[in-house]
Every structure is written in structure tokens, then in C-alpha cells.
Amino acid sequence: MSRRLIIGGNWKMYKTPSEAAATAKSLKVKLINVENVDVVVCPTAIDILAVREIVAGTNIKIGGQNMYYQDEGAFTGEISADMLKDAGCDYVVVGHSERRHVFGETDDEINKKIVKALSKGLVPIFCVGEKLEERNAGKTEDVVGGQLKEGLAGIEINSAEKLVIAYEPVWAIGTGVTASPEQAEEVHRFIRKFLTDIYGNALAQQIRIQYGGSVKPANADELLGQPNIDGALVGGASLDPDSFTAIIKSAQSV
Ligand code: PGA
User: Fold this and answer.
1) Of 79, 98, 122, 184, which residue is the least packed, with the fewest Cβ within 10 Å?
2) Domain regions of the chain by residue span
């Protein structure tokens, strides 16, 4: 099976529209003909239109960082799947640990968001991951398994392209501490097995499972070289076009 890796750039709450435009212009030059890897940048919502316009004509795709699961209504401050789609997004990050732990998002809400994203033709990048105390208590598989079970409840997919999973151990996000390739691979293998049990082997083998948490040019080769790591969701290092491009080059070479 040929593995086509996926590298996401999660810009979080960084970059004003003009800063985002400058970054996108630089990425466009560096990645004009990017091939053999799917590249998705996820700017904050107010930056999406500017970034999309700049990268038009390249293979760089756009993702939202979050969405609400209702179609429309009196939900001040929220963004719908239709809005993301119409603004040019193909992907949306769902259940990022910052959404779970800073904003109190629940597994049930995350499940509703995945259902809605899929129904609107957006590919959810569904994030799971344990906290440090959970890992230290030997509960990593319980936590990640529980998040997968709740998040994917009732969700049917007929193509592996429709769903991306991101394993992001909370203790590794933005901390500079990366899971070792072996630690990450162990959880990715567990996730693959979980997906096999619900979607069957053929689909599960092809669903991309990204690793996220302090991915940098210096550790990307080793992480992306693991058999069950099919890409990376990159936060801090995606803010700088040079380091993001270096990670994409790693993905092209493994
Ligand atoms: P980081 O963030 O690369 O800065 O650790 C990853 C993420 O939160 O998606």
C-alpha cells in the first residue's frame, strides 16, 4: 500500500489577517508544486479567506480550526460547516485538546461536529490524546479509546479519505517535549486496531493518523518514519514557513 502522508499546519490563535497573508505568500512560493503529500493549513477563521485566495492554484488545502454542529442560528461567535465550506475549506480540526481542556468541549459535542462536518463534505481532523497524569497512571489507551469510541459513535464512512485522526498527547503540545517515535507509534498502532474493529481492515489501513505535539524539522523524519504515523499536525513549527516546509520535505522523503 502506498502511504500518502498528510501534514497539517495548525496556526491556532496566531497571525492577524495581514500576517497570515504574508505567511501564505511565502508558503505559496516554497510549496508551489508540492506533490506526494497532502498539505493543509488551518488559519484562524478570520484569516481563511485571505489565505485561500493566496494559495489558490497550489495544492495547499485549507482547514478550519473548529466549527459548531448546528447549521445556523442564534449562536453568537460560532462558525458553521457551510461557512467553512463556502470560504474554501476542505478540512476542519475537531476536538483539539485546547478546545477540550480550555473551552470544555465534550465527547458528545465532538461527535456531533464530526457528524455535521462529514454531512457537509468537510474532512474532520479528529484529535485525541491523553494528559500527562493519565499517561503516568497507565490510562493512555483507556482515554484515547474512550475518546475514539464517543467521537466516532454512529459514524459510517465509505472512504478512508473522509476522516483523519490526529493523536496529540496533551503533554507534548506546545511544550517542546515530543513523544518518542516508539511512544507515538505504540498509540498509533492502538488507534489503527480500534479503527480496524469498527471499519474493517481495508479502510482502517488507509485512514491517515497524524501525530501532533512539538513536531519540528529535527524530529519529523523519525516520527514520520514509523509505520502507523501517516502525517503530522504541526502547531508552533507551522507558523514559520521555513520550518513548516522542512517538515513537509521530511514527509515527502519517508
Ligand atoms: P505544537 O502543537 O506543534 O505547537 O505542539 C500541535 C497542535 O496543537 O496541533
Assistant:
1) 79
2) 6-252
CA of 59 to the centre of ligand 1 (A): 22
What are phi and psi for residue 209, nearest 5 degrees? Answer: -115, 110
Q: Which of 152, 177, 175 is nearest to 163 (CA)?
A: 152
Cβ of 168 less than 6 Å from ligand 1: yes
Instruction: Kindly give the parts of the chain with pLDDT less than 50.
Output: 1
Cα separation of 234 and 213, whole Å?
Answer: 7
Q: What are phi and psi of 115, to 5 degrees?
A: -55, -45
Q: For 157-172, how does the pLDDT look when each residue is reduced to its tens digit (9 = 90+)?
A: 999 999 999 999 999 9
List Cβ neighbours of 78 (8 Å cut-off, separation of 6 or more).
67, 68, 70
Atom of ligand 1 nearest to the CA of 175: 5
One-letter identity of residue 1:
M
- Judge contact between 63 and 125, C-beta under 8 A: yes
The class that CATH gives domain 6-252 is alpha beta
